[in-house]
Design a protein that fits this description.
146 residues, 17% helix, six-stranded antiparallel beta sheet, 6 strands, alpha+beta
Length: 146
């Protein structure tokens, strides 16, 4: 499916799940108003000004497919982060301890450092991007400018 540009929307109810509206209302009470962006495939809720003690300010991206199907396409998540927040912001997807696991829907979460240029103290130091398969690996062709 071809990817369309994200547009900001104010839609809180898509006709299929009132629980989304209740959860969003509770989240607004706890951490403030969210922004909502949609393209033809994904819906992304953006919560800004997450201020964990001892960490830089974060932006929380809560991502789901509009058809509610499961995803885990790294390039899609990277593109969402780039388009909505920016290409020089770093983000992580957390796999939490079981004691604080939240797994209630096919929804995915990225935690983005709000200030561009701040790096996590782990990860690769240099860029290495190719759509040419390397030994013992497989890579699909690019469809956009990663």
């Amino acid at each position: 499916m071809e990817w369309t540009e994200f547009e900001r929307t104010y839609l809180l109810y898509d006709g299929s799940n009132y629980a989304d509206v209740r959860l969003n209302n509770r989240l607004r009470e706890l951490i403030g108003t969210e922004e909502i962006y949609c393209n033809n495939i994904y819906q992304v809720y953006v919560y800004r000004e997450i201020k964990p003690v001892g960490w830089p300010e974060l932006i929380w991206l809560s991502i789901k497919r509009r058809d509610k199907e499961a995803i885990h396409d790294w390039r899609d998540l990277q593109s969402i982060k780039n388009e909505i927040i920016g290409i020089e912001h770093e983000a992580i997807e957390l796999y939490p301890a079981e004691s604080r696991l939240v797994d209630t829907a096919n929804q995915y979460h990225l935690w983005v450092i709000a200030e561009k240029g701040i790096r996590f103290p782990f990860g690769f130091e240099v860029r290495a991007v190719t759509d040419i398969p390397i030994p013992n690996g497989k890579q699909r062709p690019f469809t956009s400018g990663l």
